[in-house]
Write a structure and sequence with these properties.
transmembrane; membrane; transmembrane helix; alpha+beta; elongated
Length: about 150
């Protein structure tokens, strides 16, 4: 059995929480018609659901497992072995943030952004080197590695 590490996404929950609070305050202070009230309720429910979603990435020597969790249950799980991956692309997002796109042979690519601990990017590049997967690093990404 190989080395195993689990990483979690660092989500920006403050904007969602602020939206939820502002909608609650607005509905208490302002007299709105039923259409506006229903829209506020729909947005509040969506914000509450999004606050409870977590993303997880597990890297072993043999495979990568990507999970989307809602509360305590897993709502989406994708497992990729080295033979399922075509290329791993390393890019820069924002001013000083790294992003890795895992491009599988079939299906949509996985974008790994703001996962903690920060070693997730090095672990994915090591996974690619161990399993002979092509790694493409942009010039901006190489600047961030220095």
């Amino acid at each position: 059995m190989g080395k195993q590490m689990i990483y979690s996404a660092e989500l920006k929950r403050l904007p969602l929480f602020t939206t939820l609070i502002l909608l609650c305050i607005q509905s208490m202070l302002i007299d709105v018609d039923i259409t506006g009230f229903m829209f506020d309720i729909a947005v509040a429910i969506l914000a509450a659901i999004l606050l409870l979603i977590d993303f997880e990435l597990e890297i072993t020597n043999e495979k990568i497992i990507y999970r989307v969790k809602f509360l305590l249950g897993i709502i989406y799980c994708r497992s990729l072995t080295s033979s399922d991956i075509k290329i791993i692309k390393c890019k820069r997002t924002g001013w000083a943030s790294k992003c890795i796109s895992i491009c599988p042979l079939k299906g949509t690519k996985l974008r790994i952004i703001r996962f903690k601990p920060a070693g997730v990017y090095d672990a994915l590049v090591s996974f690619a080197e161990i399993n002979n997967i092509a790694v493409e690093k942009s010039k901006d990404y190489q600047i961030l590695e220095r």
